[in-house]
Design brief:
It contains 13 helices and 25 strands. With about 450 residues, it is of the alpha+beta class. It folds into four domains: about 110 residues, Rossmann fold; about 55 residues, 2-Layer Sandwich (Dna Ligase, domain 1); about 130 residues, ATP-grasp fold, B domain (D-amino Acid Aminotransferase, Chain A, domain 1), CATH 3.30.470.20; about 100 residues, Phosphoribosylglycinamide synthetase, C-terminal domain (Glycinamide Ribonucleotide Synthetase, Chain A, domain 4, Alpha-Beta Complex), CATH 3.90.600. It has a five-stranded parallel beta sheet with strand order 6-5-4-7-8. A five-stranded antiparallel beta sheet has the order 15-18-21-25-22. Strands 9-12-10-11 form a four-stranded antiparallel beta sheet, with helices on both faces. The chain is globular, with a radius of gyration of 21 Å.
Length: about 450
């Protein structure tokens, strides 16, 4: 069975061409962006999605199965002869969804449960990096608060305390004082503030620098890197306040030079992939690298086993060539080394519009008005939305991400902000400074130019 190139992706089987059947697991902003891109790559395909949000519904056939129901999803994919399953969130992968699909002979883009440990266990990932010589912050792992407290007091602050398990992107606490770090460690280990995710913690030295997100599509051996992006984790402008799942992102990033990307591929991605293979856990899927550019050189902050959110919402709109071809090559284990992704000129910026109270709990079921959102150079990716009895309504903390693109970062940021400002629901909150570091670099490089974003 082979993928045919062309405007409508088809499969040739026994001499007959049939339209592809694709299943997307997940229903957030990342999955909407994946659906949006794959629909463009394969307009004639049948695309299913699990419990799709309000924005995904017009683009797919809904599947009323939870993304974490591994057995039901594998049964559905087998019964519909799905040609490719693309897994968005980390939880199904950590539960072994890819293993179950492969056991049934189903093509799936995503790592095995054993390989997904690179995200589901930060302790595993740090040990892997140490053994493979991959640069990262000095660290220790703990299951008892007393031991963690002793090491924290020995190291001093600032210092970072992380839940080792999956904590929805919110399990890392950057502590500026020793007592704050001690309190965080006790909260995780003694008070179970993050449940099972915090039964083991990683305490690591604070790294100073600027952070990048880099996606690597891999078949377990070869790896293709996509554009580097930068997300904004803090809730407040100027990167203040608590961490979130991400309040916005932009791409490309000027400091991600070709030389840096080559170094990252050779010194980080390839050793990690070799190390995973040696551990009988070859990684096939999307390996996400969180990278810190420190004064001592690039160091790994974290790995994820899937596309990042909201970085996916800026990388994919800039990808001109086929994402589907990359995914199929990674799944087949053939031809990935011959593919060179092409990206459009210019920049993309996405701004998250979140519910009141985010990153904590907040109201649900509030009506959403998108009528005033401009359409030129903008796409709205839905995250926490659903189709209510009277129209679109909120169903999560991060409600939508508004992606704008343009010839310059200034233009893309202006479009993104204008779209986000036009999203209306009670208590909506957003950051209006997405891309501020890059804009400052542009200002320094050309003081006579204008980097101010129209309000």
């Amino acid at each position: 069975m082979a993928l045919r190139a062309g405007p409508i992706a088809t499969l040739r089987t026994k001499g007959v061409e049939v339209a592809m059947r694709i299943l997307i697991v997940g229903n957030g902003g990342r999955e909407h962006a994946l659906l949006w891109k794959l629909r463009r790559d394969a307009p004639g395909a049948t695309i299913y999605a699990t419990r799709p949000n309000g924005g995904m519904l017009p683009l797919c056939e809904p599947v009323e199965i939870a993304p974490t129901d591994v057995e039901a999803l594998s049964g559905f994919a087998a019964s519909r002869a799905v040609d490719l399953t693309v897994v968005g969130p980390e939880a199904p992968l950590a539960l072994g969804l890819a293993d179950r699909f492969r056991a049934k002979g189903l093509a799936v883009f995503g790592p095995s449960k054993a390989a997904a440990r690179i995200e589901s266990s930060k302790a595993f990932a740090k040990d892997l990096m140490r053994e493979e010589g991959v640069p990262t912050a000095e660290y220790r792992t703990f299951t008892d608060a007393a031991g963690a407290e002793a090491w924290i007091r020995e190291q001093g602050a600032p210092i970072v305390v992380k839940a080792s398990g999956l904590a929805a992107g919110k399990g890392a606490i950057v502590c500026t004082a020793v007592d704050e770090a001690v309190q965080a460690a006790h909260a995780m280990l003694d008070d179970f503030a993050y449940g099972e995710a915090g039964r083991e913690i990683v305490v690591e030295r604070f790294m100073e620098g600027e952070e990048l997100s880099i996606f690597g599509i891999t078949d377990g051996d070869d790896v293709v890197l996509l554009l580097a992006s930068q997300d904004h984790k803090r809730i407040g402008e100027g990167d203040t306040g608590p961490n979130t799942g991400g309040m916005g992102a932009f791409a490309p990033v000027s400091i991600a030079t070709p030389q840096l990307m080559t170094e990252v591929r050779e010194r980080i991605f390839r050793p990690v992939l070799r190390g995973m293979a040696r551990r009988d856990s070859p990684f096939q899927g999307l390996l996400y690298l969180g990278l810190m550019l420190t004064p001592e050189g690039p160091k790994v902050v974290e790995f994820n086993c899937r596309f990042g959110d909201p970085e996916t919402q800026v990388v994919l709109p800039l990808l001109q060539s086929s994402l589907l071809d990359l995914l199929m090559a990674a799944v087949d284990g053939r031809g990935l080394d011959r593919l060179r992704p092409r990206f459009r000129e210019g920049s993309a910026v996405t701004t998250v519009v979140a519910s009141a109270g985010y990153p904590g709990s907040g109201p649900r079921g509030l009506p959403i008005d998108l009528d005033g959102v401009p359409e030129d150079g903008v796409v709205v990716f839905h995250a926490g939305t659903r189709a209510g009895a009277t129209g679109l309504e909120t169903s999560g903390g991060r409600v939508v991400t508004c992606t704008g693109w343009g010839e310059t970062l200034v233009e893309a940021a202006a479009r993104s902000r204008a779209a986000a400002d036009a999203v209306k629901f009670e208590g909506a909150q957003l950051r209006r400074d997405i891309g501020w570091r890059e804009l400052a670099r542009i200002e320094r490089a050309d003081p006579t130019g204008s980097t101010s974003i129209p309000t």
